[in-house]
Design goal:
Layout (H helix, E strand, L loop, with lengths): L8 E3 L7 E2 L13 E6 L6 E3 L2 E3 L15 E6 L4 E4 L2 E11 L5 E7 L2 E13 L4 E8 L2 E3 L13 E8 L5 E8 L2 E3 L14 E8 L5 E4 L2 E3 L5 E5 L4 E7 L2 E7 L2 E4 L1 E7 L2 E5 L4 E4 L2 E6 L2 E3 L12 E3 L68
Parallel strand pairs: 1-4, 2-5, 3-6, 4-7, 5-8, 6-8, 7-9, 8-10, 9-11, 10-12, 10-13, 11-14, 12-15, 13-16, 14-17, 15-18, 16-19, 17-20, 18-21, 19-22, 20-23, 21-24, 22-25, 23-26, 24-27, 27-28
Length: 369
């Protein structure tokens, strides 16, 4: 327990495991609520280098016991959670934030086999500002599939269940989302996942950029929006939609998608209803007519010219085809996912990476001399 502390540092020093449950799970002795680390009202706190395992091992499609088993439950301002490894929990991290919490830094974490990788939410008319979620790897949700669709998996889930709330300046960037999303489609006819990034209610400004989303076609990669939400911005992301669904948004005022890659789209991959002041442009599509309409500068390509890490190869049509967004004054966006600086004045490259990767030479032989 780390409740009601200030300036606390919990450093696991890479110990494996740092904290774990040994008998809480579907086929194990216990089916109880459990927090491996609980840090409420913990201001100026840092949680790092921890390996947190098995808050709950969900292994049964009929198990309905999981809903409050968290690896980390926290709340406060000036909180830093980084360089942790988390596996098997209802929520890898959960922040039930309080009014005027600010400056939450969550980065360089590896989170897998959790129903929610990261959840930030509350039910009161609270204000939250300055959330930075970056350079994390969040993956693999299918073990939380349930016959009643009880859990609704999400990679990053930021929500306020009160229309009077105010969530501002949330930055989600440089993350990798991949792995199995849901197998429910083959069993009950409906995916058990919402999206890799799911946001709604009370939002005043959201910025999502330099992320790699690798879907399996069963669920949307990004979803959100509800009446009153403002200023959703998605820039320089890669959406590999797994020949299925891609985006689902509604009722956002000020909705901008620029410099993104969309590939492996299925039938009707976008659901965009009721969004106002919506701008889609400077995006690239693989073998698919760009939509929604009006994308004057977007590209429909038969080949994106990417390597297996979604970096552009030399000669890719993505290079210098994006609009320069330096004027937005988002310092983190001025560098790509690898930390390479984007041009200050000239055109950018579409996608998460700013520069090309050289292709290895072919037809080259070596001989002894």
């Amino acid at each position: 327990m780390a409740n009601n502390q200030s300036w606390l540092v919990l450093d696991g020093n890479g110990t494996n495991p740092s904290v774990q449950n040994t008998a809480n799970g579907s086929s194990l002795a216990n089916h109880i609520d459990s927090f491996l680390i609980n840090a409420q009202n913990c201001n100026n706190c840092e949680l790092k280098n921890l390996t947190l395992l098995n808050a709950y091992q969900m292994t049964s499609f009929t198990d309905g016991s999981g809903n409050r088993q968290y690896a980390i439950s926290f709340q406060g301002s000036n909180v830093s959670i980084h360089d942790n490894v988390i596996s098997d929990a209802y929520a890898g991290m959960d922040d039930e934030y309080q009014n005027n919490d600010s400056n939450i830094q969550i980065y360089n974490n590896t989170i897998t086999r959790c129903n929610w990788g990261l959840h930030i939410g509350n039910n009161s008319p609270s204000a939250l500002s300055g959330v930075y979620i970056h350079d994390n790897h969040i993956s693999n949700f299918t073990n939380w599939d349930n016959q009643n669709d009880s859990y609704h998996h999400d990679g990053v889930f930021v929500v306020q269940n009160n229309f009077s709330a105010n969530i501002s300046n949330v930055y989600i960037y440089n993350n990798l989302f991949d792995g199995g999303m849901s197998n429910c489609t083959s069993r009950i006819g409906n995916t058990c996942m919402t999206a890799y990034v799911y946001t709604n209610t009370g939002f005043k400004s959201l910025y999502v950029f330099n992320n790699i989303f690798v879907g399996d076609g069963t669920s949307y990669l990004a979803e959100g929006g509800i009446t009153g939400d403002l200023n959703y911005n998605y820039f320089n992301n890669v959406f590999d939609c797994g020949n299925g669904l891609c985006l689902n948004f509604s009722s956002v005022n000020g909705f901008t998608f620029k410099n993104n890659i969309f590939m492996n789209l299925g039938n009707s991959p976008f659901s965009l209803n009721g969004n106002t002041n919506m701008v889609f442009d400077y995006n690239a599509y693989l073998n698919s007519t760009p939509y929604p309409s009006g994308q004057v500068h977007s590209l429909n390509l038969s080949s994106l010219g990417l390597n297996s890490s979604y970096q552009p190869l030399l000669g890719s049509a993505l290079i210098n085809a994006a609009t320069n967004l330096t004027s937005l004054n988002i310092t983190q966006l001025d560098r790509d996912k690898a930390g390479v600086a984007r041009p200050a004045t000239s055109a950018w490259t579409i996608g998460a990476y700013a520069s090309s990767t050289l292709q290895p030479p072919t037809g080259v032989t070596a001989s002894a001399r």
